[in-house]
Design brief:
The complex is a heterodimer of chains A (278) and B (193). In chain A, strand 9 (240-246) and strand 10 (249-255) form a beta hairpin. Helix content of chain A is 46%, strand content 23%. In chain A, the strands form two sheets. Chain A has an eight-stranded antiparallel β-sheet, with helices on both faces. Chain A has a two-stranded parallel sheet with strand order 1-6. With 278 residues, chain A is of the alpha+beta class. In chain B, helix 1 (11-19) crosses helix 2. Chain B starts with 10 loop residues before the first helix and ends with a helix. The chains are: A alpha+beta (278), B mainly alpha (193).
Chain lengths: 278, 193
Amino acid sequence: MSLIHVKSKLSAYAAGEVGARARQKIAHHLSHCAACSTAYKVIQQGSQFARQISVRAPSDEVWHQIKHNILSSNSVGSAAVVRRRARRAYWPQLAGALALLLVVATAWWTIQRGLLRTPNTIGLDGFITIIERAMPNDVVRAAARSLKGFYVTPQERAFAIAGVTDVSDRLPLDGVSLTGTRMRTIETQEVVELTYSLHGQSFAVFVAPASVDFSFGERLITPAQLEDIACRSVQSETARTYWFGAGGFHCVLVSQLQDERQNAAIVRYFVKAHEELQ
Amino acid sequence: MTVPGQKTRNERELIAACQLGDHLAFEEIYALHSTAIHTLAFYVCGDRHVAEDLTQQVFTRAFTALRTFNSQARLRTWLTRIALNVCIDHQRKGRKREFLPFDDQAVKGNPLIAASDVSAERTEFAGALDKAIDKMSRKLREVIILKYINELSYSEIAEVIGCSIGTVSSRLNRGHRFLAAELKDFQEEAGSV
């Protein structure tokens, strides 16, 4: 076995990843070759260091989010179980009864949730719920899942729609970064959604012309004062959601930030941008 | 995470149970493999929050993909392949790897380090080790983590990263020599485990 050949196998030899014959040859060589023996000691030291690399367990929140994801989608096993059970049932009669029940239930649920809305309405109830539950860095993906009809758009177009081209495209918050820009066209009206990240937390701002409505399901909407800004607060468990006017537009901020000053700065920025447009 | 008193099932039983929709079985799989996957994501991307996000993606994908899982492969190898793909996708979106300095929690969570050993010297060594890992090239870091954290064999590493066993061996050689050189001031630590 050549010198180069032995040296190339030293890590594998240390890890027990060589065959019995090669192991014998290498062991024999190491007992006679000072250079390779020294090289082997270096490999062993490196290996010992590598064994002490810190493991990092994820927080409990990761499992909770995974569980939420898999429960809210059709799982592999439960779909198979449902199919097997359905075959055993009196399918035609059962299907008819289920269909009728589904229609009635959907109609009742839709009416109860106030979802019979005009075409020019952006429903944000589901979006707020997902933001409340989303991991801070998962907000853009959560937005993609929940916002029907929205699609990714270039940053410049998003800013133009949001009316923030004539002011700095940086919010007055240190460390903020733009993570997503999406839009939707309703008839001729354009609505934009901007997602930002700040120190691991996310917030989203919707900007829409006044002719496009926002709906919030059954959430309570109350007058609110965000520092010196009069706006409306939308009921949510953990997110801070504010609905405010800005020139001929209105905006909704859905924020994971709990600092009122930061949320006020965001609202003030969009209000000011639209005031300067007029 | 596991139910107290419940007998641990073997891997094949867990996979079969998951394919029938047993969420508790999937929770067991998560408990067994999440730390290794999360640690891999952390060292590939360098950010704890990103690692958690990517871990979530890996296991969410895995739950769906279990229907096509080939039970001849080890579950750890399969999950690791998904994790590397998820990390590569993340980096392709232009998110550069950022190094976060070492934190005490990692030492305290390390089963190789006894609680009584969490001293200032240990912390200094762990910080130096993290920095050394960060200084490594991506290729060397990858094989080192796959070997020592994900506990894959040489052939499994070769399969996961798509290269020959000889390449794996060569990269581990270089990785070991790199660590030995970077951490030569901590040679006592090398002998303490």
